[in-house]
Amino acid sequence: MTGSQYRSGVPDNWFVDPVQLGVPGVRRVVEGDDTQLAWQTDALCSQTDPEAFFPEKGGSTRDAKRICASCDVRTECLEYALHNDERFGIWGGLSERERRKLKRQAS
Ligand code: SF4
What we know:
The chain is mainly alpha-helical.
């Protein structure tokens, strides 16, 4: 699956192909796999519509945030987004504006 089948707001590299990652919740052990994105194996959003996580400007983020609230890797996801300065989309249950605010409060 590539981002190209989604509308332009969804980055091509948003997600590693779930087929490559294996079954959600069952992490494949790959020797030497220490990628920053290993947590995405357990990401709930990999099983849903990615466009909910990259809404059009002014679009609702409610559905995405509801999914994030039940996600086991919410902390890892948010840390990744903050560390990599992700500008778009919902990560770890927070919008871009909410992540900016969190960063300001932390500094
Ligand atoms: S916290 Fe939300 S955006 Fe992050 S991996 Fe989980 S479902 Fe996806």
